[in-house]
């Protein structure tokens, strides 16, 4: 494992600010290619009571983006939808490493939990 230069801790926030984030566990049911995009794929994520399409930049991070199909991961589900490559992304994958410029890995629960379970 390579070392990174650890970034400084961000400014303090109030607990109420943290509570604004809605981070939930979802199962990645499918990883689909987005034509004409060099980095984006479409995840179909099951949150228990509904499914969402979430666009993520995995093409340059993994030799085989489909290797994450069937895995549970953490997602921010209360971001405003964002249009990318003519498609609407309905959340954000909560991964580890991207901000530190290392190959990101999934933030996953240590064992299976029901889809839609909240983090925090």
TrEMBL record:
Residues 17-120 form the TRNA-binding domain. The keyword Membrane does not apply. It comes from the Bacteria. The keyword Transferase does not apply. InterPro entries: NA-bd_OB-fold (IPR012340), tRNA-bd_dom (IPR002547), Tyrosine-tRNA_ligase_regulator (IPR051270). GO terms for molecular function: tRNA binding. Keywords: RNA-binding, tRNA-binding. This is EMAP domain protein.
């Amino acid at each position: 494992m390579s070392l990174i230069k650890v970034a400084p801790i961000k400014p303090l926030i109030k607990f109420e600010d943290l509570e604004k984030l809605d981070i939930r566990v979802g199962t990645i049911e499918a990883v689909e290619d987005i034509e004409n995009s060099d980095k984006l794929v479409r995840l179909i994520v099951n949150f228990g009571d509904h499914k969402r399409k979430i666009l993520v930049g995995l093409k340059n991070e993994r030799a085989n983006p489909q290797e994450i199909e069937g895995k549970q991961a953490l997602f921010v589900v209360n971001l405003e939808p964002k249009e990318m490559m003519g498609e609407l992304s309905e959340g954000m994958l909560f991964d580890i490493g991207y901000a530190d410029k290392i190959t990101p890995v999934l933030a996953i629960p240590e064992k299976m939990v029901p889809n839609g379970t909240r983090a925090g």
